[in-house]
Amino acid sequence: MAYTEEELKKELETKEYEYGFYTDIESDTFPIGLSEEIVVAISKKKEEPDWMTQWRLDAYRSWLEMEEPEWANVHYTKPDFQAISYYSAPNKKPKYDSIDEVDPELLDTFKRLGISLDEQKKLAGVAVDIVMDSVSVATTFKKTLAEKGIIFCSISEAIKEHPELVKKYIGSVVPQKDNYYAALNSAVFSDGSFCYIPKGVRCPMELSTYFRINQAGTGQFERTLVVADEGSYVSYLEGCTAPSRDENQLHAAVVELVALDHAEIKYSTVQNWFPGDKEGKGGVYNFVTKRGICENHAKISWTQVETGSAVTWKYPSCVLKGDHSIGEFYSIAVTNNFQQADTGTKMIHLGKNTRSTIISKGISAGKSQNSYRGLVQVGPRAENARNFSQCDSLLMGDQCGAHTFPYIEAKNKTAQIEHEATTSKIGEDQIFYCNQRGIDTEKAIALIVNGFSKEVLNKLPMEFAVEAQKLLEISLEGSVG
Amino acid sequence: MELKDKLVNAFMAFENQVDLDHPVHDVRSAAIKVFENRGFPNKKMEAWKYTSLKSLEKLDFSIFPKEAATLEYKDVKKYFLHEVDTYKIVFVDGVYSSFLSETTHQGIDVCLMSAALTKDMYKPIIEAYFNKVASKEENLTALNTAFSREGAYIRIPKNTQATKPIEIIHFATGREQALLLQPRNLVVVEENAEVQILERHQSLSENAVFTNAVTEIFAAKSAMVDFYKVQNDNSTASLVDNTYIDQHSQSVVTLHTFSFGGKMTRNNLNFYQNGEHIDSTMKGVTIIGDGQHVDHHTLVHHIQPNCESHQDYKGIYDGNSTGVFNGKIMVDRLAQKTNAFQQNNNLLISNKSSINTKPQLEIFADDVKCSHGCTIGQLDHDALFYLQSRGIGKKEAQALLMYAFANNVLESVRIPELKKRVNALIAEKLGVNLGFEL
Question: Which domain holds residue A204?
Answer without folding.
Answer: 5-476
